[in-house]
Amino acid sequence: MLRNRLSLFIAIGTIILSSCQKNSSPTSVIGPLGDSAMVASAHPLSTQIGLQVLREGGNAFDAAVATHFALAVVYPRAGNVGGGGFALYRMKDGEIGSLDFREKAPARASRDMFLDEQGNIVDRLSIIGHKAAGVPGSVDGILKLYDQFGTKSLRELLAPAIDLATSGYAITQDQADEYNAKRDDFIQVNGPDFFLVKNEPWQEGDTVKYTELAGTLALIRDQGRSGFYEGIVADQIVKEMESGGGLISLDDLSGYSSKWRDPIVGNYRGYKVISMPPPSSGGVALLQLLQGSEKYDIPAMGHNTPETIHILTELERRVYADRATHLGDPDYYDVPVQMLLDPAYNKKRFSTIQKDKKTDSQDVKEGEVDIIESVQTTHFSIVDTYGNAVAITTTLNSYFGCKVYVDGAGFFLNNEMDDFSSKPGVPNQFGLIGDDANAIVPNKRMLSSMTPTIVEKDGNLKMVLGTPGGSTIITSVFQTIMNVVDHEMGMQEAVNANRTHSQWLPDRILIEERWTDGETIKKLEQLGHVIEYRKALGKMDCILLRADSTLEGGADYTRGDNYAEGF
After folding, report:
1. Annotated catalytic, 472?
2. Which of 216, 377, 378, 520 is catalytic?
3. Residue 24: per-residue pLDDT
């Protein structure tokens, strides 16, 4: 049935896109509503596909499978089979859990693999090209979720993605811009005849087909996990590695396994906050930030006022310094989670914050960073008719990962090796510093900022949240929760609100370009802050259970093609 309906989705794609703009117009503060179920994702087609699964009786995990593989087709810059991520869930009875399907370092990886003979980092070696790829975890993770909780057949759940890859779809202006922006990288890694390289720029409405990816998805449909990690696709990945000096082997692929972990749980002003544990830094950092902000009367201070932004920046400065020092893969490093979430520790950590003066980041922790760049990944949130909720954040790291397209298999590989600390004290592409806790070790998972989060109130589901954004993920989720809890916003209003970001180093505040309050900027500068502008911070995909028990979607349509819909 899904296969039959997909042709309709493709045919009315432009109607879906216009509907997205219509039901979430900037003049409205209320997002799409649903009595029973809701899906929010990075693309209208993936949302429609996930929602159709729910309409036909599937649960949140069935919809997650369909949505994830659809994103691999319609949002290939971040949706993927060649990357990894994290899944957080809450069952209708309150049971919670999380699955870590973060990529791993290949067995042949080494601590100094991105350094030259003088011990300096080789420019872009951990970002572009074959050596930057970690062992993919997405397929294993999504199928492990399916094996545990899914109810429908893989044939039915993957049919829409396979049809989209085969038949093609019309790209949006945002997608055209990304294809054009990565043209030189595509040529550098895959050659001038690569199918995404055109003589003329890509334009909105152009059709893209991923026929080789359709073949890979069909193997996953028919053979499950072994259709990706063994056989033809595994051979194609290794052949690609051998052609470009990459390190992933057949043993790396067959031996990969995602891992169930206990979520991080905390409280904020009477709300229960559930998030990801290490090797995601997101849950720990988020709960530290919420502990710190709970000591201030944020509602009285006001939304995005100079006073509020100053306090949030000071909290973020200290939490990101802790991230750089203490966080990594708990299977390889004793991460002091209990210490970092201890209220006594955080009270002391935040005690040096002054309301009338910024703290110099060098006084928080020594270090030096001059860059912060990419804000890439993707997230989707789902609530089903049974009351189950799923929050999944998945990524290739940079858009289109390391830009290596696996010939014959039809997908991009990640560049997650850059998320390790290639050299202690030296930043990665997001300006994040790491230390020994996040050093490269064979088979180790790299640290992440991904922060899929679920919030409860009085024992009931309240919010499902997440976003892409590299190092800005944590602060985007943090501010969105505060927008709902402290500033009493609805979901779409909370998502639409202007966001800021600071992360210890670089010692500055990022503010979105659309910010128009010059007086706020002036007052922050008077406190000593350095302000820099970014086009956008995060692309939230969230769901809120409102007081009347309806579900409100909040998708970042003002910052991307994100789309929420319910029924």
Report:
1. no
2. 377
3. 37
